């Protein structure tokens, strides 16, 4: 298996190196790509040194089986043809192709088979907030069809990339020294603050991030589910948290929901409120599963259930999900 990582210097790119190693991905050759800014940089992987190549419109992808691409939507659009023209499967982390009809949008625990139908050689990785939500929703959908969802997210700084995470750390240092904090990556200072805006606003008053949760969830789950989201940036370094209210066709008891979550692929149930046991981003950072806790009946709706999920959005929300897609394709001998 010959593998490429495009955008290796970034938050997600670095996670690809870790995840491929941790999961013992069957890899014979690795090629790393970046822009002219990181070209020439050296990264080590399984004891070997690899030099980053500049991504160019040439034949560098000839012979590469799978390319994990996390270099922003503009780069993905610009280089999709170059990456796929010799048969490379492009697994793309950007939002560029997610809603295209001829590009599958895949979360292996939910719709792995969709990855087999990829007319353009591109498979899209969903938005990080959507990935962790649909892994949990799938467990409930298996019990009773979910009609609608309200969700509020608490999104870590690293969701906006490596420099955003560094800016949050720097802001705390600057404030402690009595200096004016640097504010470049977000609209406002994030340290000691919350920002109720992730991505830009659309005409209906929701942000693009919130509309991604609506549209992507329907595409992945192949249902008429309605999702109303509020996305908030919080001063957490890594791992997104979400509170989710679902309305199902029939009432689901707490016991049923707990059992479904406990048995579901990719989920760890952490729900013992009497022992103060519930998932938190500080402890979920760097972990693979989606953690679920605080499961309750919705007090306003007999068919409603409320729960809390936390997942590392650079792992399951990006690199890990993409690697799991590739693992699935290998397992079914599709690459
Ligand atoms: N962070 C997350 O939690 C997360 C989750 C899900 C999806 N994503 C998506 O994954 C992508 C990367 O996000 P990130 O957080 O890793 O961002 P990041 O830390 O800012 O890294 C961006 C990467 O893209 C590379 N790049 C930019 N322009 C390029 C070009 N023209 N040619 C080649 N490489 C180029 C950069 O390389 P240089 O160093 O050479 O500039 C860098 O490696 C984005 O589309 C993002 O939306 C991120």
Short description:
This protein is of the alpha/beta class and 335 residues long. The protein has helices spanning 11-22, 73-84, 108-111, 128-141, 162-176, 208-221, 254-263, 281-284, 315-331; strands at residues 2-6, 29-34, 42-45, 48-51, 53-54, 66-69, 89-92, 122-124, 146-155, 226-233, 240-248, 267-269, 290-297, 304-311.
Order of H and E elements: EHEEEEEHEHEHEHHEEHEHEEH
> How many structural domains in the coordinates?
2
- How many whole angstroms does the radius of gyration measure? 20 Å
Please report the total strand number as a whole number.
14
Q: What is the SS-derived class?
A: alpha/beta
CATH architecture of the largest domain: 2-Layer Sandwich
Top-tier CATH class of the largest domain: Alpha Beta
Specify the CATH homologous superfamily of the largest domain.
Answer: Dihydrodipicolinate Reductase, domain 2
Could you say which overall geometry the principal axes of the C-alpha atoms support?
globular
Strand content: 15-25%
Average pLDDT: 98
Bound molecules: NADP nicotinamide-adenine-dinucleotide phosphate
Cα distance spanning the termini: 9 Å
Number of helices: 9
Helix content: 25-40%
Strand order of the largest sheet: 5-2-1-6-7-8
Task: State the assembly state of the protein chains.
Answer: single chain
The largest pleated sheet is described as:
6 strands, parallel
The residue ranges in which pLDDT falls below 50 over 5 or more consecutive positions are none
